[in-house]
Design brief:
Layout lengths: L1 H14 L10 H7 L3 H4 L7 E7 L5 H8 L5 E4 L5 H14 L19 H12 L12 H15 L8 E6 L13 H15 L2 E8 L9 H4 L4 H24 L4 E5 H5 L4 H11 L17
Parallel strand pairs: 1-3, 1-4, 2-3, 4-5
Bound molecules: 2-acetamido-2-deoxy-beta-D-glucopyranose (NAG).
């Protein structure tokens, strides 16, 4: 009987799909403003700047403009390195909720010492088999994530603002068409927790129409094209809404503004002001050769 229950538990644990972590529930809200002293400032990059962009919207030009700020290093596409970190974070954060953990109220033992954890083990070990015993904790996953980011991307130390630009964070690519809004929010939330201070640029063309985005839509036909139209429209909405709701750490850029000689000097100053840099630093969106 006992063995059968353990077996069932084992099977259900194995086949149970990995739940995407709900980053907004009460349990996780606590970590949203993860105290700096607990993360340890040496384990987290101080300042990060990320550029999330729709394809063919001038993200390399924006990246190059930001890289003209002396202490900035914004990398190009990172082939999902950071997205994989996000996925790992979500999966690892769901481990404490796994069914094999329910016989101990781990939440009450978040700060438990090694000695206490061993005692908890000892208290159970005579009563049951403990194949899933572990004291895995979500806040450590966050610390580990920050350390990983810091070592890979933020290793030049304080004073250097490091980040990347990526065009995969759009509906239909990194984020599923049907859950784009949830996944976008979760990812932005994650970006903000990766570093002590995070700033985000959300870049696209001004207009999300087929006509205004020939590079995206030209290769597509039929249903694929319709879906892509919906995805791009949704992405624009998400970018707009996010910046409207988070102006202190998010800034909306439209590609056309970077190349319009009447407006681009103002845009450059606004970007520098947003970054709390000298607004008169000479940065240019048009330094690179056209494609
Ligand atoms: C604005 O655009 C003009 C014309 O393309 C260019 O010469 C100038 O350098 C640009 N200014 C900035 C700040 O990029």
């Amino acid at each position: 009987m006992h063995l059968f229950v353990v077996f069932l538990l084992g099977v259900t644990t194995l086949v149970r799909p990995i739940q995407p972590l709900d980053l907004y529930n009460a349990e996780n809200a606590r970590y949203a403003d993860f105290p700096r002293r607990r993360a340890g400032h040496r384990l987290a990059a101080e300042e990060c700047v990320f550029v999330l962009a729709t394809p063919h919207s001038g993200s390399t030009a924006l990246m190059d403009a930001l890289n003209q700020i002396p202490n900035y290093l914004i990398r190009g596409e990172n082939w999902a390195a950071h997205y994989n970190l996000f996925n790992a974070y979500q999966r690892m954060s769901s481990i404490p909720q796994s069914p094999g953990q329910s016989y101990i109220h781990w939440r009450e033992h978040r700060q438990a010492s090694f000695h206490t954890v061993k005692s908890l083990y000892e208290a159970q070990a005579y009563q049951r088999k403990l194949p899933f015993f572990h004291e895995f904790q979500v806040d450590r996953v966050l610390i580990a994530t920050r350390a990983y980011y810091k070592v890979l991307f933020g290793h030049y130390g304080n004073g250097v603002v490091a980040g990347f630009k990526e065009t995969r964070y759009v509906c239909g690519t990194a984020f599923g068409s049907n859950q784009c809004s949830e996944q976008f929010s979760a990812y932005l939330h994650f970006l903000r927790r990766t570093c002590i201070r995070t700033k985000v640029f959300l870049l696209s063309r001004t207009d999300n129409s087929v006509h205004a985005n020939p590079d995206i839509f030209e290769p597509l036909t039929g249903g694929q094209k319709l879906l892509a139209e919906r995805d791009l429209e949704r992405t624009h909405q998400l970018y707009d809404d996010y910046v409207r709701n988070n102006p202190e750490h998010a800034f909306r850029v439209h590609m056309e503004g970077m190349f319009d000689h009447k407006r681009n000097a103002t845009l450059a100053r606004n970007i520098l002001t947003f970054l709390q840099e000298d607004p008169f630093l000479p940065i240019q969106f048009t330094r690179m050769p056209p494609k």
